[in-house]
Amino acid sequence: MLFRIARQIAERARELAVLESLDNGKPIRESRDVDVPTASAHFFYHAGWADKLGYAGYGPDPKPLGVAGQVIPWNFPLMMAAWKIAPALACGNTVVLKPAETTPLTALVLAEICQQADLPPGVVNILPGAGDIGAAVVSHPDVNKIAFTGSTAVGKEIQSALAGSGKKLTLELGGKAANIVFEDAPLDQAVEGIVNGIFFNQGHVCCAGSRLLVQESAADEVLDRLRRRLTTLRLGDPLDKNTDIGAINSREQLDKIRELAQAGEDDGAERWSPPCQLPDRGFWFAPTIFTGVSQSHRIAREEIFGPVLSVLTFRTPEEAVAKANNTPYGLSAGVWTDKGSRILWVTQRLRAGVVWANTFNKFDPASPFGGYRESGYGREGGRHGLAAYLDA
Amino acid sequence: MPDTRLGVRKTYKLFVGGAFPRSESGRSYPVQAADGTLLAYAAQASRKDARDAVKAARSAFAGWSGATAYNRGQVLYRVAEMLEGRAAQFAADVAAAEGLSAAKASAQVAAAIDRWVWYAGWTDKVAQVTGAANPVAGPYFNFSLPEPTGVVAVVAPPGSSLLGLVSVVAPVIATGNTVVVAASSARPLPAVDLAEVLATSDVPGGVVNLLTGDPAELAPVLASHMDVNAIDLTGAGPQEAAEWERLAAGSLKRVLRPAPGGAEEDWAAEPGTRRLTTFLEIKTVWHPAGS
């Protein structure tokens, strides 16, 4: 059944990619090359687990939990639906999924795909709606497990609301990832990684590399190259396959990005954007870099969830690690250096659930994803992700 | 010379940062044996003591989590060695605290010693059992490894004063976490004696911090403390557990809930890995392969 769903997502990839970009505002290049194929791969990977759960390390005959209530965000609508539904079904649970208020369309196509794959009625249920629907799912007494991806503030509310209920809970929440560039890093690749880290999906990414920590000795050169690269980014029509940066998902999100960018200026950081013509209609925000950022600035502490990069510098590896970990979050991090032993030394000390060495924002259904600390708990993907949906 | 010697009685104190302070509040409370006779006075830890204990546990975290798994295994085994040497004393403690016969109390102590040995052996196996190399679709070496969550608060079971306590503390520190444990309120003396064993077993100061007193006073402080990463509510009643879990949401702590129904766990049974894995974080690293 899950194999069928995986195949059908691939078959309808073009339609889903266009629909995703229309609904979300993300560049078609990303929905085509990342969102849709990753969603399909996620079902394909988990399909293979369904009849092998006894070998997954959770006992010889692990049981499903029952009904899984799942609430997902607007930044990767189809991909998040796949990350939630595929492991839940593979482990034998049934699902009630609430897509985000502003991006329900691809989840509804996915519902149709489930229907056409002959999934029995009631196994997957999709309920578009606002926060009140999510709250009703979370608090329903006949739901056995809650999986939520979204903001840390709402994650705390859910954990608090579920206290004493006995329901199993996994949370994938916000982040403020450090992307650490050492002076010996391959700089061209590092610049591409920085750009991908923060401008992928307009920065609407919980694991975005939103804090660039660059070694002081290389800071000028990295920033020169980064500014040059940013002037070549194309912002505009999400359905144009040459577009690098699409639209901001909603007015509310645009207001939040603007407010935090203003706070960056007010706190004394230096703001820079490339010359960039914003379209007249819709919600847009030019790629933005703040230099001279200190750890106390709001733009170094709070999740902006937009195309805004805060640049800080460091001198020693110890200082880089200390600054990287100086956040209540702990979802992801990046390290750029040519020295293998330093990669291992730094990654061992970073308090984050996913660490990318000399790369960034890579995802795979076999690779567990999830956070430390206030970025939530539980993992999605890989053998580890099954634990969230098994009574183990 | 009098022909009967007066025994030297012990003052039972807290165990924080490797030292044995009294409560900063100056309070103590009477501890009775199962038959109601007065055994001793125990320190009654305050909220400030709980915060001090968290601070000590945080300070000890870098060193303990950074120690090799082999080294942690050696240290935990050393605890078992020290406990074995004082088995008779602990049997008497447990018999008095829990009202058990000498034989049953000795069996509890033996099981507690064996539990330290069991977890000593886990320290350098848990990464292989819970880690993975992940076959991603690209030119990357991708691997996942467990790491300790950080500072873990533990509400120890109220009934099993030694075996239950060891069963909740040992798995937390085996993987490199540090711990602040609120001991059984009614039966705290074996816990304080265990602290004396830990202090002489190469366990670095601050790795285990033990508070005696009223969990209803201490647990809310620990559950809402922003520098505590996880909380084990094993010793909490159903209503307390719900309330403390709510407080724990303030910093998204990992929570180990008590067994449903409020009955105490069967501490004699083989523990499984849940108490190890609840206080682990899985870190996944992407490393490119290239020439």
Describe the structure.
The complex is a heterodimer of chains A (392) and B (291). With 392 residues, chain A is of the alpha/beta class. Chain A has 2 domains: 2-173 and 371-389, Aldehyde Dehydrogenase, Chain A, domain 1 (3-Layer(aba) Sandwich); 178-357, Aldehyde Dehydrogenase, Chain A, domain 2, CATH 3.40.309.10. Helix content of chain A is 41%, strand content 15%. Chain A has 14 helices and 13 strands. Chain A has helices at residues 2-11, 13-24, 28-49, 77-90, 105-116, 131-139, 152-162, 187-199, 216-230, 251-266, 298-301, 317-325, 340-349, 382-385, and strands at 67-71, 94-98, 124-126, 145-149, 168-172, 178-181, 211-215, 270-272, 288-291, 308-314, 332-336, 354-357, 376-377. In chain A, β9 (288-291), α11 and β10 (308-314) form a beta-alpha-beta unit. In chain A, α1 runs antiparallel to α3 (28-49). The radius of gyration of chain A is 21 Å and the shape is globular. Chain A starts with a helix and ends in a 7-residue tail after the last helix. The model of chain A has no long low-confidence stretch (mean pLDDT 96). Chain B has 291 residues and is of the alpha/beta class. Chain B has one domain: Aldehyde Dehydrogenase, Chain A, domain 1. In chain B, 42% of the residues lie in helices and 18% in strands. Chain B contains 10 helices and 10 strands. Chain B has helices spanning 47-66, 69-85, 87-98, 102-122, 126-130, 163-174, 189-199, 215-224, 238-248, 274-277; strands at residues 28-32, 38-43, 132-134, 140-148, 151-155, 178-182, 208-211, 230-232, 254-256, 280-288. In chain B, strands 7-6-5-8-9 form a 5-stranded parallel sheet, sandwiched between helices. In chain B, β8 (230-232), α9 and β9 (254-256) form a beta-alpha-beta unit. Chain B is globular and about 85 Å long. The mean pLDDT of chain B is 96. The interface between A and B is large, with 41 and 36 residues.
